[in-house]
Design goal:
alpha+beta, Beta Polymerase, domain 2, Hydrophobic Seed Protein, 4 domains, seven-stranded mixed β-sheet, two-stranded antiparallel ribbon, 24 helices, 51% helix, 10% strand, binds adenosine-5'-triphosphate, binds magnesium ion
Length: 460
C-alpha cells in the first residue's frame, strides 16, 4: 500500500488573486473536487471548483461579475479575467428524500463538514488557498496513489442518498483507470435499482463521460456485472451470449464493446463511438440459423438503427445527435468491392452523405477491430476512398440541387408544378447518377420533354 507524501499543491496565480479578495472580506476559500484530485495525479483539470465560507449573496457583493448558476445548491460562478470559477458555499446536505436531490441545503460550519458530503475519498480533498496545503480527512491521497475508488463513509448509505453515485464510480473507473473498492462494488450489486429514481438527464451526463473516456468498456462491463446495464441499457444486455459463428470470434456484446473502445482509443467523434456501441444491437432480434452452423442477421442494421433511436431518445439526446448516430448505424453495412460501377459509388455517396463518409469509415475500422480484437489491414477501405475521390472528381452531381436544370426550367417547357415535376426531377437525377455527361441544360430538358425517361429518349 503506497501513501502519498504530497501535502501541498502549486496554486495557479489566478486562484491566489481570487483568494486574496476573499481574505480581505474575512472569508475562507478552498480548491476542491476534481481539480485537486487531478493535480495530485499530475494531470490537468479544465475547471476550478471552490468551496467557501462566503454565502452566495456575499460573493455577489464582493465580486462585480457573478452569475447565480446554481443558487438553489449554494453555487455561483465568478467571472474573473475571462475565466469562470464555480464557488459553492460550504454545504452539509439535508436528507435525500427520493434518492435524487437533497431535500434542503444546510450550510456547513467548515470545510471538513463540506468534505464529508462528497462522494468518493479522491473527490473529498481540499487545498487551502492561497497556500495550497492539503486537507484530506478521508485518506483520498492514499486511494489516488493506489488507484482506488472508495466512498466517503459507508458505501451502501452513501449510494442510498444518491443513486447516481453508483454510475459516477463506474465512470471514474473508465476515465481514470482506477479499481473500485469491493464494499462499493457490492453495494451497487446489492441494490442496482437505486439508479431508477435518478433523473435521465443526470444519468446521461455520466454516460456521456463514459463514452468520452479512453476506455468505455471498463464502466460498461462493471454496469453489466452490477446489474446497471439491465436497467439503463437492456437492449445491450440482450446482446450478451448472442454468438456469431462464421463471422466473428466474440458474442455481440463483446464485439460492440471492443468496437466502442477502439473508437475511443482513436479519439473518434461521439456519434461514431455511440454508433460503434449500438451498431449491432439489432442482431439478437434478427438472428436466424443459416447454412452449416452459421448464423445470419439479415437487415440487422435497420433494426439496430431503430433500437439506437429508442435508446438515445430515452437518454434524452438532442435530435441532431440521435439523427447523426442512427444514420451511421443504418449505413454501416456497405460492402464495397472493385466491381462496383461508378454510378454505384455515386449512389452510395448520395445515400451516406459526403459529409458523413469519414465517420462511416471510422465506424468500419472500429467494427472490423471488434471482430477479432486485432487491427486488420483494410486495403479495400483505402481503395474505396480513392475510388470515391476519383469518381467525385468527375462529377459532384449527387442531389437535385446539383442538376443543370431546376423546376423553373421545366415549367417553361410546359411541365406543370406538382407531383409530376417532382417525379421528372428525380428521374433526371437518376439519369445523371448513371451518366454525369447528361448534366447539361440542353440534354436534361430533352429528357424531361420525353417524359423523364432517358432510356426511352435515347431509343427514339
Ligand atoms: P469532472 O469535472 O471531471 O467530471 P469532478 O470530480 O470535478 O470530475 P463534478 O461532477 O464536477 O466531478 O463534481 C465536483 C465535485 O463535487 C466532486 O469531485 C465531488 O466532490 C462532488 N460531487 C459531485 N457530484 C456528487 C454526488 N452526486 N455526490 C456527492 N458528491 C458529489
Ligand atoms: Mg468538475
Amino acid at each position: 500500500m503506497r501513501v502519498s507524501k504530497i501535502d501541498k499543491i502549486a496554486v495557479p496565480r489566478l486562484l491566489r488573486e481570487l483568494s486574496a479578495i476573499f481574505k480581505t472580506h474575512g472569508k475562507q476559500v478552498f480548491l476542491v473536487g476534481g481539480a485537486v484530485r487531478d493535480m495530485l495525479r499530475g494531470t490537468q483539470h479544465i475547471d476550478w471548483d471552490l468551496a467557501s465560507s462566503a454565502r452566495p449573496e456575499e460573493i455577489m457583493r464582493i465580486f462585480p461579475n457573478v452569475i447565480p448558476t446554481g443558487i438553489k445548491h449554494g453555487t455561483v460562478t465568478i467571472r474573473y479575467k475571462k475565466h469562470s470559477i464555480e464557488v459553492t458555499t460550504y454545504r452539509k446536505d439535508g436528507d435525500y428524500v427520493d434518492g435524487r436531490h437533497p431535500d434542503s441545503i444546510e450550510y456547513a460550519a467548515g470545510i471538513e463538514d463540506d468534505l464529508s458530503r462528497r462522494d468518493f475519498t479522491m473527490n473529498a480533498i481540499a487545498a487551502e488557498l492561497p497556500g495550497g496545503h492539503i486537507i484530506d480527512p478521508y485518506h483520498g491521497r492514499m486511494d489516488i496513489e493506489n488507484e482506488f475508488i472508495r466512498c466517503v463513509g459507508k458505501a451502501a448509505d452513501r449510494l442510498n442518498e444518491d443513486g447516481l453515485r453508483a454510475l459516477r464510480a463506474l465512470r471514474f473507473a473508465s476515465q481514470l483507470n482506477f479499481d473500485i473498492d469491493n464494499e462499493l462494488l457490492h453495494a451497487i450489486q446489492n441494490n442496482p435499482e437505486m439508479i431508477i429514481p435518478v433523473s435521465m438527464e443526470r444519468v446521461r451526463l455520466e454516460f456521456d463521460k463514459i463514452i468520452a473516456s479512453g476506455r468505455p468498456s471498463t464502466a460498461l462491463l462493471y454496469m453489466e456485472k452490477c446489474g446497471l446495464m439491465q436497467l439503463i441499457l437492456p437492449e445491450l444486455m440482450r446482446c450478451r451470449g448472442v454468438e456469431q459463428k462464421g463471422y466473428h470470434r466474440f458474442d455481440v456484446l463483446t464485439h460492440c464493446l471492443l468496437a466502442c473502445d477502439y473508437a475511443a482509443r482513436n479519439k473518434y467523434k461521439q456519434s461514431v463511438r455511440l454508433a460503434a456501441l449500438f451498431h449491432d444491437a439489432g442482431k439478437p432480434e434478427t438472428a436466424k440459423p443459416g447454412a452449416s452452423d452459421v448464423w445470419t442477421f439479415y437487415n440487422h442494421e435497420i433494426v439496430s438503427a431503430d433500437i439506437t433511436r429508442a435508446i438515445m431518445t430515452r437518454l434524452r439526446y438532442s435530435n441532431a445527435s440521435i439523427d447523426a448516430t442512427v444514420h451511421l448505424v443504418k449505413e454501416h453495412m456497405f460492402n464495397y468491392d472493385d466491381v462496383w460501377s461508378e454510378s454505384a459509388v455515386r449512389r452510395f455517396v448520395r445515400r451516406a452523405g459526403e459529409e458523413n463518409l469519414q465517420d462511416l469509415f471510422d465506424l468500419r475500422r472500429a467494427d472490423s477491430f471488434g471482430m477479432t480484437g486485432f487491427e486488420a489491414p483494410l486495403d479495400l477501405l483505402f481503395d474505396f476512398q480513392d475510388r470515391i475521390k476519383s469518381t467525385l472528381a468527375k462529377s459532384r452531381a449527387l442531389s437535385l440541387k446539383d442538376l443543370a436544370v431546376n423546376g423553373n426550367d421545366l415549367m417553361r417547357t410546359g411541365i406543370p408544378c406538382g407531383k409530376r415535376m417532382g417525379f421528372i426531377l428525380r428521374r433526371l437525377l437518376e439519369a445523371v447518377l448513371d451518366d454525369p455527361e447528361l448534366n447539361t441544360k440542353e440534354k436534361l430538358l430533352e429528357i424531361a420533354i420525353a417524359g423523364g425517361d432517358s432510356q426511352s429518349m435515347m431509343s427514339t
